[in-house]
Amino acid sequence: MAATQHAGHTGFHEGELAVQQRAGVRAEAGRLLGMLDPTVLNAGIQRCLAAQTFAAFAARDADHRLWVTGLAGPAGFVEVAGLTTLQVHAAPDLAGPLGELAPGQPFGMIAIDLLRRRRLRLNGDVTAVDGAGLTLEVDQAYGNCPQYIQQRALAPRAHPATDTGRRDTVLDDADVALVRRSDTLFLGTTHPERGNDASHRGGPAGFVRVEDETHLWWPDYPGNNMFNSLGNLHADPAAALLFVDFATGGMLHLSGTAQVQWTDAAGDDGDTGRRVRFTVERVVSGVGLPVAADEVGPYPLNPVLTD
């Protein structure tokens, strides 16, 4: 995809509008429309990014497959270098699915402060990749609410070096165990004109259910009604997931497709009647982050699991 293909687009796209209509929240979403306007990395955004030590980053590999991975570094590793330019002093692990990240493509990134329950969503284009990290041109930047962020204090932690992550097409027992105990996931989605996006999902441990070695699902809790991720899935089913073992820094990357399912059945979705079902096509595990956390403070309004 050309780096400029999504430039200049404003407002909600057709997928977001369709999901908003189905959910009956078009008016509520419309009040937030200005958040999607092209942005300048102002002083508030600079202060927010200067404190971050972790971000989830979505892009495509050399085979055009969508992935989302983790980036980490000391506070300030994501640096504002211009009105719309970011310098990220970290790059995807060479053993991970985006180890050969190519410039000239859209990216989605969410910089998240787990301790303070703050997150900033950024979208734009990768303009350069080198040994020092990434140069990103930002088109959109806007904050998301603190809902469902499980509180953690990330600290530097050595992770065993790996020459290559495990690559597979199905989940193994260790993958399933990590998913079932996770309270956080990061979701990568895409739109044919707007580019790639990264977002956060959280809930009580076990909110992501594993059906079998290639299928899992999670309830879609109430949010800001913009439906950026679900709108992308309405337009393009390509999706990617990242699960982090925060005790060790280990990462589980999944790439495949996802479908929004609407149901009248009662469950633990906060009465939204929505869930997302993901089909695994590729797996990369065994790659780690240089940060970890020893304790977790659950989000106080996590839904209670019903099964």
Low-confidence stretches: 1-7
| Shape, principal axes of CA atoms | globular
Structural class: mainly beta
Q: Roughly what fraction of the amino acids lie in strands?
A: 35-45%
Tell me the radius of gyration. 18 Å
The residue-averaged pLDDT reads: 92
Strand runs, count: 17
| Biggest sheet features | 8 strands, antiparallel
The helix count comes to 5
Keywords:
5 helices, eight-stranded antiparallel sheet, disordered N terminus, globular
Report on the structure:
The protein has 307 residues and is mainly beta. It is built from five helices and 17 strands. The chain has helices at residues 14-23, 26-30, 43-50, 173-181, 228-235, and strands spanning 54-60, 66-72, 78-80, 85-88, 105-113, 118-130, 133-144, 155-156, 166-168, 184-191, 195-202, 209-212, 215-219, 238-245, 250-262, 274-288, 291-292. Strands 9, 10, 11, 12, 13, 14, 15 and 16 form an eight-stranded antiparallel beta sheet that branches. A seven-stranded antiparallel beta sheet has the order 2-1-5-6-7-4-3. The longest helix is centred in the N-terminal third of the chain and has 10 residues, at 14-23. The chain is globular and about 50 Å long. The N and C termini lie far apart (41 Å). The model is unreliable at 1-7 (pLDDT under 50).
